[in-house]
Write a structure and sequence with these properties.
Blueprint: H1 3-28, H2 34-58
Helix pairs in contact: 1-2
Length: 64
């Protein structure tokens, strides 16, 4: 992986964790740590993967 792709991946990961952190703080109306935001983002990825496997099992390949 070249440096530009790695940098883009690192920036997108940091940005997505920040979005999860801000949205969790708005929803919970209290401070959320970066570790909690990371774990919530990881949980979202796992749920998305499980949903995509379930939809593939149903034979629904395209949602949009």
């Amino acid at each position: 992986m070249n440096f530009q792709k790695f940098l883009a991946l690192a920036i997108s990961l940091a940005l997505s964790i920040w979005v999860v952190k801000v949205s969790a703080e708005l929803a919970y109306k209290k401070e959320v740590s970066w570790e909690q935001a990371f774990l919530q983002g990881l949980l979202l990825l796992v749920l998305f993967f499980a949903l995509s496997l379930f939809l593939d099992w149903l034979g629904i390949n395209r949602i949009f």
